[in-house]
What does this fold into?
Amino acid sequence: MAAEGKGLCAQVGNAEKMYSAERNTYVTVANGSTGNAFIKVSAGSNKYFTAYQVASAPGAGNTIATTFVVTTIGTGDAAGITVTYDQRPSVSAVISASP
It folds into this structure.
């Protein structure tokens, strides 16, 4: 089940990287099930992980977002499973699931 969430996080992470390559920043997504104007990743066909959030953060001393974290929370049989794609350099771009 967590594989579906990991796949979703990887898709969103790749979309963030493409966005950043063009605009030199990342974008925050408050509640994505169909994405937004910039990150067009849909989770609508997923069974367990049907929405995601992206938190982006600026680097020290500027307003350009230099890191992002994607989170999705399982529903139904996957309730209680959280999958995170943490792109911050301090954690070396890891996708992890808990519990």
